[in-house]
Amino acid sequence: MNLQLSELINCDNIDKIQIRGIDGMLYQAIAFLRHGDTVEQKLIYHGDKPYLSRSLLAVKEDFEWVNAAQYVLVTDTAYDEMIGLGSEKPLSTLEQPLHWK
């Protein structure tokens, strides 16, 4: 499911905005919307393409008017592979809170 960046201003049930580092300095955004006891995950779009940014500061500016309970930065790390555990399993994921509000 997708959600336009412009639609976020009307959302009052945003549990979390996840900023995902997908390749070096390339970021994508995902919204987690709460509906009672369930949480719906939606990829954020800007026009007809998924929202992407090469600057975390630009992401902060783009989302400054969005009222979300929390913002987090999620990155995948190659730590397991670096310490010799191999690359058979998925990369480790690191989630850091962003104190933007």
From TrEMBL:
Record-linked Pfam families: DUF6482
InterPro entries: DUF6482 (IPR045508)
The name this protein goes by in its record: Cation transporter
Organism: Salinivibrio kushneri
Organism placement in taxonomy: Bacteria, Pseudomonadati, Pseudomonadota, Gammaproteobacteria, Vibrionales
